[in-house]
Amino acid sequence: MFSLLIMAPLLSMSTAGAASFRYAEDQAPGIVNPLFSTTMGEARVNELLFDGLYSDSQELATVPDLVQSDELSEDGLTLTLRLRSDVSWHDGRPLQGQDVAFTVQAMKEPGTLSTEAGRVSFIERVETQGDSLVVLHFTEPQVRPQDKLTFKILPSHAFSSTVVTRSDSFRTRPLGTGPYKLVTYNDDNSITFQANSEGLGGKARIAEVVMREVSDKSYQAKLLLYESLEGLVRVLPRDLAVLQNNRKIELYPYQTNSWWYVGFNQARAPFDDARVRQAMSYLVDVDALLAPVGTGEVLSGPFVRSSPFYNHQVSPRTYNDTRAATLLEEAGFASEGGMWTRDGEPLTVTLSAHRTLESAQEVVINLQSQLRSGGVTVEVEFLDEAEWKARIWRQQDYDLVLSQWSFDRNEDVREQLHSDGARNFGSYSNPEVDALLNEARATRDPQVKKAALRKVHALASQDSPMIFLWTLDSYSAISTRVDDVVIHPFYFFTWVRQWHMGS
Amino acid sequence: MSALRPWAGVALLLLPVLIWVLSLAANYDVIADVDVSRASLAPSVDHWLGCDHLGRDVLWRLITASESFVGPSLFACVVALVIGVPAGALSGWLGGLPASLTRFGLTTVASLPRFVLVLLVCAAFGNSVQLIALAAGVAYAPTLAEAIYARIQSFRHRGFVLAGQAHGLRSGRILWLHLLWVNHRRLILRHCVQLFAYFLLLETTLSYIGGLDGAGSFGVAQPDPSWGNMIAFEWREPQANIWATLAPGLATALVLLGATWTGRSLIEEQA
Amino acid sequence: MSVHLRSLRILAGKRALVSQVSLHILPGQITVLVGASGSGKTLTARSLLGLVHGIEPGIVAADLEIQDGEVIHRPYAAVDRERAFVPVRGPLIAWLPQNPRAALDPLQAVGAQIRDCLKLSGQNTGLDVAPEPWLERVSLAKSVGRLYPHQLSGGMAQRVGIALALARGSRFLIVDEPTTGLDPSLRAGILEELKRARDSGVGLLLITHDLRLVRQLGDHLLVMDRGCIVEDRPAQDLSAMQSAQAQALWQATLRLEARQ
Which of A143, A139, A134, A144 is nearest to A120 (CA)? Predict the structure, then answer.
């Protein structure tokens, strides 16, 4: 029975040609339209189909992609771009300035409800001159606006208006300039892409890319081992050992800008009191929490260790029960029979975790155990997506959450930590942090920004709006049949043009 | 072997009950036992069955897991008895319209697959072991009632029943004492053993499925141990201590074997 | 103290199984009810206890009068017949069904069943509910009390049945085919027990298809055929029987005896 289940997809997949690169996603993209993408899976597909004005070099510096040359005005308020003349859409029409103007306008359009609107909010308007000259006018002076111009450009001729809906037919026949074009949506939810011979820098060397939906994550590694896949975007920690020992598979480590945390609801007792939050973080042994999950780096603040904003002067909190006891007693708690109580009420909190969070169960059980030993009773609940949105985001009806944040290269934590931040569902509020975040966003000087964010790091560590946990070491696994592989830590396929498959 | 089997069966069946008593007495803290420095430890003198990948003692979890099914399955038996015995006995004894109505109701319940019924109850009223036990008891009651109905109906006109009536025994006494207790207590006991085994299997299965998605949406959720969720928690760990998955599996198999043997010897003695 | 059954009628649908049957049982006397199989003997006997309801549809009309000292029970005249039969079943009339082994609870030891009867009868309340004396009264060993019905022989089972009736202390005893399937020596023993019961003042209704029993211990004879009483006379001088059916039965019995 079980072997049949395994065999069925194997048989159906063996028909793919030798020159095709097959990779797995947990879930097929719900929508192929960069205006509305929310998941990493969608971002990876967008990377295959579309190009941005700028892109990342392999050293993660911003380099022109669709742009031939650019010129920033003295006052930093306008950027004049000359587009490359040799780029055409998958339908053969040439790329024009109005496509850029359309894309920015569609993202900004309130009626579109684009999830990416925030990325172009600094652009006041776009002006086109001729076919290939584009002038961007900014709302405030910019230093390196190119870094923010990596969003994907859409063909204006494929849409009737800048007000675009999620259900627009574009999602079924997307049109881009990217290295691959979408050929078919297959019945098994897979998507077949073919190399675009007119693409930037010539035709990609791998003729075909296939996105497979494999919802059981532990099964993905097996498919890779059985050579039914060529690539795995993210390897589960428990599969690492097996894949590492296989000669036909190469593991590619990459840094993700994402970190785990235990967030406090500071809008209500007992975590409205910073001392209680600090005490909690002293009761947790983060290294022991991390051990069953995988390997990674323990953090002391809201940035990954490799980030320029990470403040190395602040060290991660370590387990210290006497310090925790002092803080809890200051906050009015007393220890009764090893458990903390205040006004006769035991310190009991609920920990909410997202149902789909990888290895959440281990962390939750471990955390529950550690806090129990520290005298705090933790009740656990797992929430699915809808409950999570309602309970955590909208109603803010929770005590503790276990979750992770993922960032792009800009590592903008303003939404998480600013008192009016959209993602600050823990109601963290520190005027000093607010001011520093505003300063970091407004300044044109990278050094000032770095200094401000490092201060934010120190303050956040002190205030403990969350217990900062860790970044996990991440690996992609790719068959050794694919050569010259370089993986973008976030978008995966950014440098797919140079990949090729041996004989 | 066949002479030993009834005793071996009873012994295996009593094992979880003994473990249960031990567990209630010992009061092992399932939450506080995590210690990652002991992760996936092999069996040793301190930890007879080793530790799971969070460093929790497998033997203690195995023992404590009895709390998640022994009590509830006894509760399920009580539910099935309270519904099934009177329904089967009275409809077998009285016959006629009351019997038809009762049996119609029971057949309706029985026509739903038991597992589906239990899942429906879980989905509608939430997921707790007590509720699953209640559902399992209700789902099993028709089987018990039907078995008793068939027996009572066939005994109803036996000579000794008439003779008892002729001697002036009240109907109630004949039905409850002579027909049910004296003549069919083994049948009832066998059904209880069967239900006990069924509930163990049900709870283990549900907890296993619940354990697989990591969030315990069915059955007993971590950190509370169940033989099912213990297997689900460990079996995908590449470096796992093999006893952490093997022991709960073996324990389930042994108790089920005990139930089968006991059940069979009860049938044989009755025949 | 006597039992009088008059104009008994039992209908199954429109068909009469028994009609116009009357009989009387007197203390210290044996009334013998003779008839071929299917003539309605057993049904008549069971109607004395109100236990015909199990036989569908069993519409019973009868005038049953049981005189118990100053009290006269008329259970069929009562609204709630089931309740009206309660003082009759057991204390007044006991019934030994045809297959005595089937009449015993198969999974209860004989002694326990006698003890139950003793408790029911209210005799020997308190400590003395020992079944042994009652076993001895019907010439059985004390150890028989530990046996289960399937371990008894036919004759033993019949004796246990009598012991149960005696232990119950019933004033009248209906015995259905007590000698069927027994060899002559056992037969004689059982008949001896019945005589002894009669001599102690119990009134007996003996149901049989064997006319020889009438000669051996009968006081009064009734012959049934197809649901009707065809002969009702004292049990002496059987050659003078009136009805053709009774005569045929009697001739057959004589031929059987001659052959033996």
Answer: A139
| B interface test, pick of C43, C81, C82, C107 with most B CB neighbours within 10 Å | C107
Helix (H, G, I), strand (E, B) or coil at B67: helix
Option in B159, B178, B182 nearest C97 (CB): B159
List residues in chain B touching A: CB distance below 8 A: 29, 31-34, 36-37, 39, 53-54, 213-217, 221-223, 233, 236-239
In a domain, B212, yes or no: no
User: Per-residue pLDDT for A8 more than 50?
Assistant: no
Q: Cβ contacts of residue C222 below 8 Å, gap of 6+?
A: C23, C31, C32, C33, C34, C229, C231, C232
Instruction: Assign A26 to helix, strand or coil.
Output: coil
- Distance CA(B233)–CA(C117), nearest Å, equals 62
Q: Go through chain C and tell me how many residues it has.
A: 260
Asked whether residue A27 carries a pLDDT value surpassing 90, the answer given is no
Domain of B149, in residue numbers = 70-199
User: Which positions of chain C have pLDDT values less than 70?
Assistant: 53-59, 123-128
Cβ-count burial of A115 within 10 angstroms (0-12 exposed, 13-18 middle, 19+ buried)?
middle
Spatial distance between the Cα atoms of C59 and C84, rounded to a whole number of angstroms: 17
Distance from CA of C141 to the nearest CA of B (A): 23
pLDDT greater than 50 at residue A13: no
| One domain for residues A297 and A279 | yes
Inter-residue contact A137 to A101 (CB < 8 Å): no
Mutant choice from C105, C110, C162 vs B, greatest count of B C-beta within 10 A: C105
In a domain, B257, yes or no: no
Closest CA relative to residue B132, chosen from B112, B111, B117, B110: B117
- CA–CA distances in Å: residue A164 to residues A35, A90, A125, A175: 9, 20, 18, 15
What is the tens place of the pLDDT at every residue in A439-450?
Answer: 988 887 888 889
pLDDT given for residue C120 in this prediction: 79
A295: which 2 tokens? 């390997």
Which conformational region is residue A72 in: left (phi greater than 0), alpha (psi within -120 to 50 degrees), or beta? beta
SS3 content of chain C, % helix, strand, coil (to 5): 35, 25, 35
Residue type, C125: T
Closest CA to B85 of B112, B55, B54, B106: B106
Q: What is the rounded CA–CA span in Å between residue A114 and residue A210?
A: 27
Number of domains in chain B: 1
Q: What residue of B is the nearest CA neighbor of A382?
A: B215
**For residue A397, what pLDDT is reported?**
92
Together in a domain, A370 and A460: yes
In chain B, pLDDT over 70 holds for what percent of residues?
96
Report CA Rg, chain C. 18
CB-CB contact of A152 with A54 (8 Å): no
Q: Under an 8 A CB cutoff, do B214 and A360 touch?
A: yes
Question: Are A62 and A143 within one domain?
Answer: yes
Whether B137 contacts B80, CB under 8 Å: yes
CA C39 from centroid of its chain's CA atoms: 16
Q: Do chains A and B touch (3 or more CB pairs under 8 A)?
A: yes
User: Which among B29, B217, B237 has CB closest to A238?
Assistant: B237
Residue A285 belongs to a domain with what CATH number?
A: 3.10.105.10
Which residue type does A190 have? S
Q: A187: which residues sit within 8 A by CB, 6+ positions away?
A: none
The domain spanning residue A76 has which CATH number? 3.90.76.10
- Does one domain contain both A264 and A237? no
Query: C64 vs B61, which has greater pLDDT?
Result: B61
Tokens in use for C177?
């085919």
Q: Work out how many CB contacts closer than 8 A connect A with B.
A: 57
